[in-house]
């Protein structure tokens, strides 16, 4: 067996959830395990993940 497994799955160290790629794992960890909310400085809206905040900022005035 080499350094890499034959599957492209990644596993969450906190809960064992298996996801298909590292970006999905990052999103899962932010939403499921991060108690801190991401807050928009312009309007005060709060989001579960930095990705959701980033999307929001495109349209926030």
UniProtKB/TrEMBL annotation:
InterPro entries: Znf_C2H2_sf, Znf_C2H2_type. Signal peptide: none annotated. This is C2H2-type domain-containing protein. Residues 10-38 form the C2H2-type domain. It comes from the Archaea.
């Amino acid at each position: 067996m080499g350094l890499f497994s034959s599957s492209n799955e990644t596993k969450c160290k906190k809960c064992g959830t298996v996801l298909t790629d590292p970006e999905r794992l990052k999103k899962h960890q932010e939403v499921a395990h991060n108690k801190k909310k991401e807050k928009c400085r312009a309007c005060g809206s709060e989001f579960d993940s930095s990705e959701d905040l980033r999307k929001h900022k495109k349209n926030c005035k």
